[in-house]
Amino acid sequence: MSEKRIILNKCFKEANECHLRYRILYGSAGSGKSMNVARDFILKLSDPKFKGANLLCVRKSENSNQSSTFAELCKAIRDIFGRGYSKIWEIKSTPCRLRCKVTGAKVIFRGCNDVSQIEKLKSITFSTGNLTWIWIEEATELLQSDVEILDDRLRGEFSNPNLYFQITMTFNPVSVRHWLKRTFVDPESDEVFVHHSTYLDNKFVGKDYHKRMQRRKMLDPEGYRVYGEGKWGESSGVIFRNVKFTNVPQDYDFYDDVAYGQDFGFNHANAILALGIKDGNVYVIKEIYVREKDTSEVIKLAIERGWDKSRFMYCDSAEPDRIQMWSRAGFKANAAVKGCGSVKSQIDWLLQREIFVDFGCENTINEITQYRWQKDRLSGEYTDEPVNVNDDAIAALRYGIQLWRFKDSMAKRLDKPMERKYNFKSEVPAGAGSVEIY
Q1: Cα(271)–Cα(159) distance, rounded to whole angstroms?
Q2: Would you call 41 exposed, middle or buried from its count of C-beta atoms within 10 A (0-12, 13-18, 19+)?
Q3: CA-based R_g, the chain, Å
Q4: Whole-model pTM over 0.70
Q5: 131-155 pLDDT per residue, tens
Q6: Which residues, in sequence order, are CB contacts of 87 under 8 Å at separation 6+?
């Protein structure tokens, strides 16, 4: 085997040496827990000491593994073995799978957001060795019943005495009421190892990330509590309580209309959401959420992912040059109308209906669960203004609903009952711009 040299954060040493059945790693964003788990698994799966081990990686949405567990494990392989990694590991991306050429260990990736995916979990077998370890990333996405099904898969006997069954769960503690807290974190158990970490424990985090977190601490103390301090989130002050996370239909024909919303960014995220409306309710179908990419790179990404150019796209009006670039690329990009009180009006419109977010839109889920009203510093009471931090996907959501809000406003202006069909295949009718929608 090639010589390995890899540096790990010391705070995870005990977690990496743990052999208990349940290994819980939770804490703030940027704490390095997922990176550590990926490196820990690759080191073990590459070691003949653990010959016979195999790993299953799970996200609620199977496709989310591509940009999370699979990406982390691939990076770990390259970091550990350098240019000669292909002599040690075989990497296949369609579908995602990994195989160690030294030990024969395999890594497979699954989801559990519908019956067919759950049935696939029940029939996992490996040609050599056992299903030994399970890594559940963003474990707060899963139901308790999902984890119980996975737990049932870890059974049997080992011929190698160094092997042990273990489920590893990594997550941010988004809600104090979450079942993970009362099932694994709070009770004392000799089967459960619990590890807490924050970005301050991660020596690989740069100065820019520290600055971002300090800004969030000042502007959004409650959000910082979860994503900065890694403490369990409170539900007080959360704006959108009318949200459900589910397996959203991806076929545009299911909806009365589909539109896109985009909030431009570079250092902070550039967020694009594909939104559908059906019977008056809003669906977040898919997302693009990237940092440090210029407009041409984001356009290329949207084209590669097959985003339909015939749909209207409503963008941050503060960036007219970027809107023109999207238009020249063939997209129906328009500036979202802004005005005094427009943000609160957009929020109010969204609060009057149900919002369904696809499990694959993990960045939208992260933002919408933490999107809160500001607190008055003197009185401690919540104001009518939202916290303007970590809200890139939220801004895209607000922009993308523009034409549907316009239709509702027009119906009210004409004193007609609000219709629940939204079909904007053509341009906005002449004179429509004079309607006051705020």
Answers
A1: 49
A2: buried
A3: 24
A4: no
A5: 999 999 999 988 888 999 999 999 9
A6: 2, 81, 101
Q: What are the residues whose beta carbons fall under 8 Å from the beta carbon of 323, sequence distance 6 or more?
A: 315, 317, 333, 334, 335
Residues 318-328: what's their mean pLDDT? 95
From start to end of 331-421, where are the E strands?
Answer: 332-335, 355-358, 373-375, 382-386
Judged by phi (left if over 0) then psi (alpha if -120 to 50, else beta), residue 366 lies in alpha
Residue with tokens 């970590």: 390
C-alpha span between 204 and 76 (Å, rounded) = 14
Task: Delimit the domains of the chain by residue range.
Answer: 10-211, 243-434
Q: State whether residue 238 is helix, strand or coil.
A: strand
Q: What is the pLDDT of residues 6-38, one digit of tens each?
A: 678 999 999 999 999 999 999 999 999 999 999
Q: Which residues pair with 58 in a beta bridge?
A: 110, 136
Q: Indicate the fold that domain 243-434 takes in CATH.
A: Nucleotidyltransferase; domain 5 (3.30.420)
Question: What whole-number distance in Å separates Cα of residue 403 and Cα of residue 398?
Answer: 11
**pLDDT tens digits for 241-276?**
899 888 899 999 999 999 999 999 998 899 999 999
DSSP conformation letters of 284-301: EEEEEEESS--HHHHHHH
Name the one residue in this structure whose structure tokens are 């063939």: 330
What dotted CATH number matches 10-211?
A: 3.40.50.300
